[in-house]
Each structure stands twice: as C-alpha cells, then as structure tokens.
Write a structure and sequence with these properties.
With 678 residues, the chain is α/β, with parallel strands linked by helices. Helix content is 52%, strand content 12%. The chain binds a DNA duplex (15 and 10 nucleotides) through helix 3, helix 5, helix 9, helix 25 and helix 27.
DNA sequence: GTTGCGTTTATTTTT
DNA sequence: TAAACGCAAC
C-alpha cells in the first residue's frame, strides 16, 4: 500500500502528524495500514528520529504485527528503533530503570493471577478464618480500584452490611503492603506505579516526554483510567498524540475499560482533529447493513456508518434450531456443504461463541464428523499448574523477597518441609519482622524446629544459593535451568501423581517446554537474563509457545472455535454465531445486574463484522441448563436487523436427526414417522 | 502427606 | 449437570 492507494480519509490521517488526532476506525477499515503508514510517514518523509516515536498497543500480537509492517515500509533498522510495545511492557521497562525512587528494587517480580490469588487468600484467612467470601471476588474489586488509580487509603466508605466492601477495605492495604515487601508488582501496579512515578518525580516524566515526541495509542476504546492518565502525561508536553479506536467495538468495560476516554477525547485534548474511517474493505453490503442497523440502537456513540464499494452479497442466514445439539449439527452440515460444493477450506469457517462452556457441544459434533478444528483461548500455557510451579523456582531465584513463590516451591517436590515446619517459619518471620528467606537461612536458630526439618531446610537453602550463584555467573540459561529442574526432580514428582500416564507425560513435556522457551529467548535476545525471560513470560508470551500458539493454530486448515471476545481483530469468510438468544447474547448477567446491554450489542456487532462473505446466525428453541431443559427466546439483536436482510431457515429437526443417525433409507423413514407420531 | 469426598459455582480475560 | 477446588479425615 502506498500513499496513492489510500482513500482520502486514510490519507488525511497519515498526513496529520502535529497535534491531537482521534482516528475513529470502523471494523475492517484498514486501520493497521493507516497506522503503519503514519509511522512510516513520520520517520521516512518528515525525518522524525525513530527513537522519538512511541506506539502503544494492547496485545503483543498487535505490536509484533505493526513492527513487521513498519519494517517493510522503512526498513528493519529504523523500525527497530521505534518503541512499539504494549502498555504493560512499556511500563515494566520504565519501572525497571526508575522504580528505585519509589522504594522498590529493580529486580521486582511481576505477579500474575495465581500469585495474586495465593496472596489474597492468605490475607483473608489471616483477617477472618471463616469469612466465607470468594477470594477472586475481593481481588476483582481491588483490581477495579487500582485501574481507577484509587489508593488503599482512598477507598470510599462502604454501605452498612456490605461484607464484600468491608473485606476489600481491610485486604487492599495489606495486599499492597505485602507486594511491596515481596518486591512484587501485579499487572495493575505496572500502570499505577508508573503514573505515580511520573507524578512524584516530574524530572523522570520529563525525560520520557522529551524522548517520545510522537505518541500513538491503538484500541483506545479499551483504555482504562490508569492508561488514560499515563497517556495524558506522556503526551502532555508536545500533544502529538494520535489515538485509534472504535467505540462500537468497546467490549471490555467489565474489565475497567472506559469508553468515555474515546468519547471525550476532544474535550481532553482541545483542538483535536477527528477523522472517521468508514469505508469497509472486509464484508459484503448485506453484512454491513445488518451491522449498522444493530449498532445504531446504541445511544452513547460516535455516529458512523460502514459502507463498501463491493457487492451486497448473500443475505444473512438465520437458522432456528431445536436445541443445542441441533444447532451444532446445523453448523457442521454447512461446513461440509461448503467444502464439498464450493471447494472452501476448513479454516475459512469460524464459530464464535459467547461463553467458553458453549464450545463443548460443537467440539463433540465436529469430532463426530471428523472435521478438524482448533480451539482458541481456554487455559493458557503459563497458567498450567505444573508450569507455574516450575517457573516459581526461577522467580524466587531472581527475587529472594518473593514469598508467594518461595512458599510455592518450599515443599514442591516434597522434601520434608511440611505444613507444620512452614507455619513455624512463617510465624517466626512475622514475629522477628524479618523476610522469610533470612529466617530460613539460619533456621537452626529457631528452636521449635526439629533437627530433621532443620536439615531439610538447610538442604533447600543450599540448593537455592548454589543455583543463584550459577545463574549469576552467566552462561547457558537453558542448560542451567534444565539442570535445576532435574536436580529438584520435577519430572519424578509429576509422574508420581495418580493421573493417567498420558496426562503425566503431557505435564513433563510442558515443563521441558519452559527450557525450550528459554533457549528461544536466548537466541533472539542480545542480552539475555533470567529476569528478562521471566518478564516475557509474565507480559509477553501468554500464549502457548511452539506448535500450539494461537498463530500456528489459525494457520492450520481447521475450523476455528473461539469466544466472541477473542475474535476481535480477526476475520473469516464464513462466520457462525450460535446462541443468538436472550440470556446468552445479551448475556443474562448483563441484563439483570448492570443493565449494560449496550456492551452486549457491541459484542454482537464485533461478531457480525468478523464475516467477509457469509454470516449465519443460529438460535435454539430450548436448551439444557444445569441439567434441565428450558425454553429460549431469540435475541433482541436479531429483531434489530431489518427483515429484508435475513434469510430465515427453519430446520426440520426430525429429518435431520434421523439422517444423523445414519442407516438405510427405509429405516430413516421409519424413524421420521416414529418421531412425528410423538 | 495423601486421598477422597463434599461443596461450590458456572461470562467475557488483550496484560 | 459437571467440573474444580478446599477441607477434613486417615
């Protein structure tokens, strides 16, 4: 794509380089091309030093993709000098160099969900042994406060009888205190502490402002309050800020994203230019018409109307099914048909679901029909227990204050430091006000500990110190890690578990995959360190490494099965949207609790606009729920699509069921008659 | 320290 | 209904 191939709005966006710019980029409007061209224009034509350009995305995939496309335009050397990263890794980088002024050490750990859970669970137990509250719920509220930059002492008063609020008020301060003493940051801290760093040390902010004269933010509709404040500060001096986004695709409000950031951009940055990209290069006219009709039901939005220079294409199919099984069969039949009659590939088909639980029926039906499929999402590689346990060793080796991970590995694999001993250690650490690790180093001094336990502790201490030394000396990180895992006997521990042989093998392989990941990290990094690797684990490669990565999965010739949320940004020739029913889409929680049906409508809109040539909506008339059948109504969103865009298809359940069971024609006929007789 | 049972919970999850 | 987790008893 060169400047001439851009449409007028795209070109205007590329050429507008000075001052604030809001780029409202509709679905499929060639957004990434515009953003990369804009960077190329800054660096290539206007002669801006690449070091002065900062582009922030939400996902590593987006950052990588952008980096590659910019490299194609301005060459790899220039592209590498541009700072192109996610919010979280940008903050991690800033904090790695400047966090000491906030009283943390530079080798801080980054805590993920499971570390946070451990910590919060322990704190809650210490406050009230049988509180009966859900730790995730509390953690959720804490995270919500942090996303809004609310410090522990600034929490508003809570209502009478609000047990959850009361617990949050007690846990949140303790939680922050623990993180600090463990020299650990959670994801929210990365953002919150960077903002604090900028506020308390203006000279640091100024350094970054001076460096990043041109700032770009992708998916701006998904930014939360902390990210907004961060951007506001970074771009505050030069105001060469370009934000790109689509308020109609804001689907992460439940995670703290503030669509208000994009809606109020012109108020936040006076004099902002607003450019709309409304020409769509992805979908057929009918699909876009349906999408427009639905989304314009939302009140709070920037008016936009997607259009295409292409054909109207097929109508949107609306398939009414009997139940969940029937719905899955309907999809499978259509996939088959497309393959046999239209020479399409499996990978041209995507099934987008509201909830992960919905995938089950589809998986069964696809397997039954021998259709290859890939499931995207679900449990992440680095969230698996065996992987977390192994990684915990590395994390503790890097940061001796990290007590969550110390406790995780203390007796894993079993080495004779049981609950009793651990409790004694913790108690003496608390009473002496010394870090747990220091207490362990001279555990002999704690008289209540048995000689046998003391010996086990000493062995563990030696192991840790000797590996700390080996890692410090440098050399092959992967080899040292392999030796570490062998020495502590992780594989043996996994095989001891009462699981099937295959399960255990899988887990052992996963642990070995960590070593491979380190090797790959070393190969691509100029200055590999264990800290650096752990940071990529925490922030970057959340996706499974190797052959199971999301990208590899999408490249296979297989039907794609995933949640609507994770489909954002992708496109497929054939899109199926099952479960278009009240209670699913909009989801019943959104209707009853927060009334944010608008976000559900945007979710539906995201699904619809993933389709290039054919969109098929499906809904079932009844569905099993927690064991019993319930009647279902079709989604209100279907009724918001003009009739003339839809092709309704009613399935004769009985014939299709009979066909599905196979057998001779006459047997089939008998079965149909028997069913009709009922 | 392990095992199994019983209780709980079922929306989405870029980092 | 089913899976996952915590707890308690062995």
């Amino acid at each position: 794509m060169s400047l001439q191939t851009l449409n007028p709005q795209q070109r205007e966006a590329v050429l507008h380089t000075e001052g604030p710019l809001l780029l409202l980029a509709g679905a499929g409007s060639g957004k990434t091309g515009v953003v990369t061209h804009r960077i190329a224009h800054l660096v290539g034509t206007k002669g801006v030093a690449p070091e002065q350009v900062l582009a922030v995305t939400f996902t590593n995939k987006a950052a990588r993709e952008m980096q590659e496309r910019v490299a194609r335009l301005v060459g790899p050397r220039q592209a590498a000098a541009i700072t192109l990263s996610t919010f979280h890794s940008l903050c991690a980088r800033i904090l790695r160099s400047d966090i000491e002024s906030l009283g943390y050490k530079r080798n801080f750990s980054i805590y993920g969900a499971s570390d946070q859970q451990h910590l919060v669970r322990d704190l809650m137990a210490a406050i009230d042994a049988d509180h009966g509250l859900n730790a995730d719920h509390i953690l959720w509220k804490i995270s919500d406060a942090k996303n809004r930059l609310i410090a522990p002492d600034r929490l508003g008063p809570c209502m009478e009888g609000d047990v959850i609020g009361a617990m949050v008020r007690r846990v949140y301060p303790e939680y922050q205190k623990s993180l600090k003493s463990y020299n650990a940051l959670d994801f929210d801290d990365l953002l919150m502490l960077t903002v604090r760093l900028f506020d308390e040390h203006p000279q640091v902010l100024e350094r970054y402002q001076e460096r990043f004269r041109y700032v770009m933010v992708d998916e701006y509709q998904d930014t939360n309050a902390a990210q907004f404040e961060l951007v506001r500060r970074l771009a505050g001096k030069w105001c060469n800020l370009c934000v790109v986004g689509d308020d109609d695709q804001s689907i992460y409000g439940w995670r703290g994203a503030e669509p208000g950031n994009i809606l109020d951009f012109e108020r936040h940055f006076p004099g902002a230019r607003v450019i709309r990209l409304e020409q769509n290069y992805r979908s057929t006219g009918n699909i876009l018409a349906a999408a427009n009709a639905v989304i314009c039901q939302n009140q709070q939005r920037k008016e936009k109307r997607l259009w295409t220079a292409g054909d109207a294409g097929d109508k949107v199919s609306l398939v009414t099914c009997q139940d969940a099984d029937d719905e899955a069969r309907a999809v499978v039949e259509r996939v088959h048909q497309n393959l046999l009659q239209r020479q399409m590939h499996y990978r041209d088909h995507a099934i987008l679901l509201r909830t992960n639980a919905q995938t089950l029926v589809f998986e069964q039906e696809l397997r039954l029909s021998r259709i290859p499929y890939v499931l995207i999402g679900g449990q992440q590689f680095f969230d698996r227990k065996e992987v977390r346990d192994a990684i915990a060793y590395l994390r503790f080796l890097v940061n001796p204050f990290d007590e969550v991970n110390l406790l995780r590995i203390l007796n894993y694999p079993r080495r004779g430091i049981g609950r009793t001993t651990a409790d004694l250690l913790i108690r003496s650490s608390v009473s002496m006000q010394r870090p747990l690790w220091q207490v362990m180093r001279d555990a002999g001094a704690v008289e209540t500990i048995s000689p046998k336990a003391a010996e086990a502790i000493a062995g563990f201490v030696n192991l840790v110190e000797s590996y700390r030394k080996r890692y410090r000396t440098g050399g092959d990180l992967a080899a040292i890690t392999r030796s570490l895992f062998d020495t502590v006997g992780i594989a043996e521990e996994l095989r001891r578990a009462p699981e099937s042989r295959e399960q255990a093998d899988r887990r052992v392989e996963n642990v070995e995959e960590i070593v491979n990941a380190i090797a790959r990290y070393m190969a691509r990094e100029a200055n590999p360190t264990l800290t650096g690797f752990l940071e990529t684990v925490a922030l970057l490669d959340r996706d499974e490494p190797g052959d199971n990565s999301k990208e590899k999965k999408l490249a296979q010739d297989a039907v794609v099965l995933m949640s609507l949320h994770s489909s954002k940004g992708l496109e497929f020739p054939q899109v199926f949207l099952p479960g278009c029913e009240e209670g699913f889409l909009p989801h019943k929680k959104s209707v009853s609790e927060t009334y944010d049906v608008d976000e559900e409508r945007r979710l539906f809109y995201v699904g619809v606009t993933r389709a290039r040539t054919k969109l098929t909506l499906l809904h079932a008339q009844e569905r099993k729920k927690y064991g019993k059948m319930e009647p279902r109504d079709r989604s209100r969103f279907i009724d918001e699509i003009p009739q003339e865009l839809l092709r309704p298809e009613c399935r004769d359940i009985m014939v299709s069921e009979a066909c599905d069971e196979g057998g001779s024609l006459s047997a089939m006929f008998d079965r149909v008659m028997a069913l009709k007789g009922n």
